[in-house]
Amino acid sequence: MSTDVPRLRVAVIGASGYTGGELLRLLLAHPRAEVTMVAARRAAGQTVAQVFPHLTGLCALPITAFDADAIAAGADVAFAALPHGESALVVAALHARGVTTLDLSADFRLHDAATWAAWYGGGDHPHHPAAALLADAVYGLPERHRARLRGATLVAVPGCYPTATTLAIAPLLAAGLVAPRGLVVDAKSGASGAGRTPGLGTHLPEVGEGLRPYKVGGSHRHTPEMEQELALAAGAPVSLLFTPHLVPMTRGILACVYADPTDPARAEADYRAALIAAYADEPFVDVLPAGQLPDTAHVRGSNRCHVQVVHDRRSGKVLAMSAIDNLVKGAAGQAVQCLNLARGWPETLGLGHAPLFP
After folding, report:
1. Is CATH 3.40.50.720 what the domain over 8-136 is classified as, yes or no?
2. Which string of DSSP letters, residue by residue, matches 288-303?
3. Which of 59, 160, 256, 338 is catalytic?
4. What is the pTM for the complete model shown?
5. Would you call 305 a catalytic residue per the annotation?
6. Which of the 8 DSSP states describes residue 264?
7. What's the CA angle centered on 180, arms 174 and 181, to 5 degrees?
C-alpha cells in the first residue's frame, strides 16, 4: 500500500493573467498540492499550455469557465486571480460551498466596506458585493499576521506595493522609531504589475526608454491598504503620500519610504536593529548588510524580500527600502506562503528556489 501523502486539490481561477500563470508555475512544483482545475473566462476552451507556452509539458489541463459547484466538487482550495468586484462574487460563492479561498484581488484587503466603495466601487459594483465576508478575511502578509493565517479559510492576499512598503517601514513604526504622519512612499514597478491585457500605457515603444509616475496625488488604490496596515503597526492613524512609477522592466518593485524620526539623535544602528529583530526568524525577508542596497535584480523570480534602512542626518530623514518580485512575494508566491500557513505545512514549502540572476 502506498504511503504517499494525498495531495491537496487546488483550483486556479482567473488563470489567463500574469498572476494566474505565476500561481500555476509555483503550484505545479509544490510537493503537497495538485492543480486539478483551471478556470478563466477569457481563455475558456483552451489548454494551459496554449495560454502559457512556458508551461508546455508541465500542465495539460483544459481551461474552463468558472462554475462554483464544479470547483467545489473538484478542489479543496481555490486561488482567485480576478478583477476587483468580480472576485468578491466568486469568492462568496466558493466560501458558501466550503472551499478555502485565497483572493488576490483587493476585494477583501480593506476592513471597511465604505472604504472599499470609495476606492474600488463603481459600474456594476458601487458597493462591496460581499461585505458580510470582510470580517472573515485574514490579511495575508505572514510577517505581520502569521498567527491569524493558521487555519484561515478566506485569505486576502496583499497588493504588491503594500507588501513592499509594509515590510520596509512597519518594524520602525512598531518600535516607535519613526512618526506615523507625513510618510512618503516612492515606489517603482515593472510593467507586469499592470496586468496582461494589452494597452498603450504598457506598450513597449511607449515605455521602453522612459520612466514615469502615475496615479499621483493620493489617487492610487493601494493607498488606503498601506495606511490600514501601517496604522496597525504604529498603533495610531497613518497618513502617507504614495507616488508609484512605471519602470521599463518586466518584474520587480523597489519601495523607498521616507519618514521623520521620533528622536533625531538616534544612531542608524538603532533602526537597523529594529529591522534585524523583526525579521530574525523570517524565512523570506533579509536585512541587507550595512552599506548594501536593495535591487530588484537580486530577488527576481523568488519569494524573497530585501530590506535596508539609512538615517540621513543632514536632512533629518529616515529612509527604509525594500525590493520584491511583484509577481511572487507581491502576489502568487505570497499566496502560496499563506496556503502553507493555513494548512499547517512548513511555510517555505514549494518556495525555496533561489532568485534568477542575471
Report:
1. yes
2. PPTT----GGGTTTSS
3. 160
4. 0.96
5. no
6. T
7. 175
